[in-house]
Each structure stands twice: as structure tokens, then as C-alpha cells.
Give the backbone structure.
Amino acid sequence: MHIVIPDDYQNVILTLDCFATLKGHQVSIYHDAVDDIRLLAERFADADALVLTRERTRIDDALLAHLPKLKLISQTGKVSSHIDVDACTRHGVAVMEGRGSPIAPAELTWALIINARRQLFPAMQGMYDGLWQVNLGQRLAGQTLGIWGYGKIGQRLARYAQAFEMPVMVWGSDASRQAAVADGHRAAPSREAFFAESDVLTLHLRLAESTRHLVTAKDLSLMKTNALLVNTSRAELIAPGALLEALNLGRPGAAALDVFEQEPIFDPAHPLLNHPAVLCTPHLGYVERAGYELYFGDAFANARAFFNGEECVLANPEVRPPRE
């Protein structure tokens, strides 16, 4: 079996313990970011299976047309909009997904909240530049944490907030709001109140057509001038250009971002990187060693099971795995 793994930006796949489970198979790993279909087709031409790192490579009909040998896409974590599953089915390519974990994304979100509120990044920069105590941050205790999306990550953040003495307010589906109330939190009475009353507002929704561009300029205009918006989920949850415009207008007063519409970002002149009210990290939410062992361990196990003819759960069960 020839497995191709693109987008290993950090050159870490070979260091994972789970990589040893691929012993005896041919594995090709690429460490750059490529979206040129001709180059991708060349790299994937001899692959029996692709192991994808989250959503870094898009798989669509145009690319699959160049890959007649490909039999399997083994996704780390959950399948999302970067894979055209219908196109995979038409080309006879099976798709398997793994598990997700809320732990690392929740921890990263909380790190951004603390850093942004206490203004640690500019304070540290000042110290390294020979200065001392260049700014004044804010404590979290007493500030209202607004959570849009009360799933596994949102619930974990709500527990963090309790430890930091922050009241929690939740917006989302009826089920989310009811679950939040059952856990002792407050459900926002309206979408408008959610944006207007949150001191720290964090987004935790899956990207789908129903959630794409869900957060509008009007929503952001309701936020406090000293509020912080945090997005570690997907940049496309916010309408294009709306956040930068809102920050320039002063509502919200700040943002902490781990996700961007175009990734990776190599341009130091990017407007969000240069905005004085924005704290940015390079999509680190799931980038953590234990998480990688889980994601890639599942993806490698799924690939082995598929080609061994074992019982498999496919995202497109119309495609039948090979049988011994």
C-alpha cells in the first residue's frame, strides 16, 4: 500500500509513535502547502490512500479525475467541506473519518482569552525590547463569557469559566440553550442580547452551509467597545470583511483569532496580523502531540483496516472496500 500524507507543515509525522504502525508500507510525506491541482495530481498519482491533516487539502472532482489509482481518503478527525464526498463516490474512492477531541481546542481558546485580556503579548514584546510594564490588562473574574455553540468544546469552556469566576451565557440551538441552563448557566434571551451583553464572546460552531457567514456586521456592531471576540472554530463563520470593519469601528474592541479565511498565512503585512486590537495564532487549536497521536493513529488504523478487508465505517458506504 502506498500512503501519501500532504501538508505536514511542521515535519512532525515521522516523530509520532503511531507512525510505526505503517511499517512495511510505502509512505510519502510532503511538508509544504500546495493548492495547484497539477502538482497535487502529480504527487498523488501513485497513491492507494491519502491521509489528510484536517482541512489543509481540498479534494474535489477536478483533482479526483487525475487519480484513477486512489482507493481511500483517510481523514484525521471529522470529514468537512474540504472533501467532496459525492465526487469521491462517483470516482469509487472511499472516505473514512476519525475522532475529534475537545481538549486541545478548548485549552488553546482559553489561552487566547487570558493572553488577550491580560495583554501578555505586547507586555512580553516590551520586556524583550528592554521596557517594563508597558500596558494594563484586565482580569477575567466578573466578566460574562458568551459561548455560541454548547457542544463538547463549549461545555469545557463553561467549566473553565466557572473556575475563573466568570458568569456564562450561551446562544445557539434550543438544545444548546436548554443544556446550558441545566448546567447552571444562562441562556441568552435573544441573539441581540448575546452580542450586546458578552464581555468575551467565543464561537464554537461547525462550519456548514447553514453556519457559513452566520455572524454578520450587524451582530458585531452590537458588541461592547471593550468586548473581546474569540474565534478558534472557522473564519468563515463570520461574514467576509465584517470583523476587520467592526474592529476599525471599535465594536468589538478586540479579537483573538486562530483561524483565517486563507491558510496558511505567510504575509507579514496581512491586515489582521497588523491590527493593534487583534491577537493571532497560526491555527493551533488541534495542533498538539496527544491530539496528533489520536488523529493520525485513527487515520492509519482506518487505512490498514480498509486494505485488510476488515469491516469499515465509511462516510460514503456506497463505495465497497476491498475484500480478501
